[in-house]
Please model this.
Amino acid sequence: MNSATFPPMLSSPRDDAIKLYRAFKGLGCDTAAVVDILAHRDMTQRSLIQQEYRQMYSEDLYKRLSSELSGHIKKAVSLWMLDPAGRDATVLKQALRDIDLKGATEVICSRTSSQIQYFKQVYHSLFGVYLEHDIKSQTGGDHAKLLLAYVSKPRYEGLEIDRVMVEKDAKALYKAGERRLGTDEKVFIEIFSERSSAHLAAVSSAYNSMYGNSLKKAIKSETSGYFEFGLVTILQCAENPGRYFAKVLRKAMKGMGTDDTTLIRVIVTRAEIDMQYIKAEYRKKYGKTLNEAVHSETSGHYRTFLLTLLGPTN
Model:
């Protein structure tokens, strides 16, 4: 569910392009005007504004924004101007380049099979290299094997499940992990990279019923590092993506300092997908609204932009 609010009576893309051009003129950028326009426009409207801007001023709006803005607001607005596949491809390239393997793993392991196939194409188009190549060069071991399998294997995206297959996979995971000395990582990689989200959620429930332990706890006891993080991400996004991203946001804002890279990544990429569910899970789990948390951890135009994407507190 979309969280950002887009007023029904909007100025035309042409009018928005003119207002943005004016915001760039003179000494400094009128960042408040930029935020007021772009944070209230949906993906289609933002695309039309970019087309109009290029036609009218023979200039790329995305590049102009990058040159006019700075800091966290620049990162947030720049990401917002891209389409979902472009965002994921850009976030992945930056994360792999900066060795932010948790960020890269989160993006890959929280997306559907069709989303992955689309952003893989965009990744190659934008950066002239295949995603698989960058994964191989920046990751290793079972973590690399999991990511490479997850970006290459097609997965069913419907809700139907095969109960017999569910029980079979639960048994296979138990035999590959808790029942034996050591762990058969190949079994975990195969099941987690090839099964649908609905199927994995059912496997998790079956595992708990059959063996009296949660599958998540089994993963944590049998695996480690980024491989463990990838498996847990896949599992939690299969069971409840809203709760998963609520936890990610909480962690980004907990303690001293704020992980703004994570804050921007999650809010911008989920605002037009499932942010209402994330906000509901955040409030239920932590007893305060996500808006309140973001407000306390940010400031200025950056705060205004993120809060606008979050939408009103329900």
